Amino acid sequence: MVDDQIDEETPVFAIAAAAELAGMHPQTLRQYDRLGLVIPARTQGGSRRYSLRHVGQLREVAQLSAEGMSLPAIARIIELENHVRMLRRQVGELEQRLREEIEQRRGVRVFAAGATGSVVTLRHGTRTRRATDVVLWRPRPPRTDGE
After folding, report:
1. What are phi and psi of 127, to 5 degrees?
2. How many Å apart are CA 18 and CA 109, to the nearest integer?
């Protein structure tokens, strides 16, 4: 099955195509790259390659500049947007790891053994006294090889 969604992070546009999509002159894109406003990926030969996200950033820079915002202020906005994007990606990854960990812990039971040797099943999140040993028990997965 072919994925119909285009990855907006993939650098596919040469400078001329990106400039046309953004409604700018290629020299403007070179200047923005030098200033650190919109920094494209580079091929092994050093050619600039822009993604759809870059084209969107170029349009945003043009709009903010037309509204009177300075280029250093625009650079700071883009820097913060990139930081937020990175943090959102990290949060997504951490949420996925947490979901996997919760799923992995299903079926884990916790028992406590007191000083007298009595065994008590603890509910999730229950604290034990210091004199109590805690044991994790994870049932074996069912065998599928017929043994």
Report:
1. -90, 150
2. 57
| Tens digits of residue pLDDT in 21-43 | 999 999 999 999 998 899 999 99
User: Residue 50 has what DSSP assignment?
Assistant: B
- Token look-up 């509204």 returns 67
**Residues 69, 29: Cα–Cα separation, whole Å:** 18
- Which of these, 77, 53, 80, lies nearest to 65 by C-alpha position? 77
Cβ(32)–Cβ(38) under 8 Å?
yes
| pTM of the predicted protein model | 0.61
Instruction: Give the span between the Cα atoms of 19 and 22, in whole angstroms.
Output: 5
Q: What pLDDT score was predicted for residue 1?
A: 45
Same domain, 98 and 111: no
Q: What is the pLDDT of residues 87-128, one digit of tens each?
A: 999 999 999 999 988 877 776 666 677 667 777 666 666 666
Domain of residue 100, residue span: 15-104
CA separation, residue 44 to residues 19, 28, 41, 47, 48 (Å): 21, 23, 10, 8, 10
Same domain, 89 and 113: no
Q: Count CB neighbours of 57 within 10 A.
A: 23
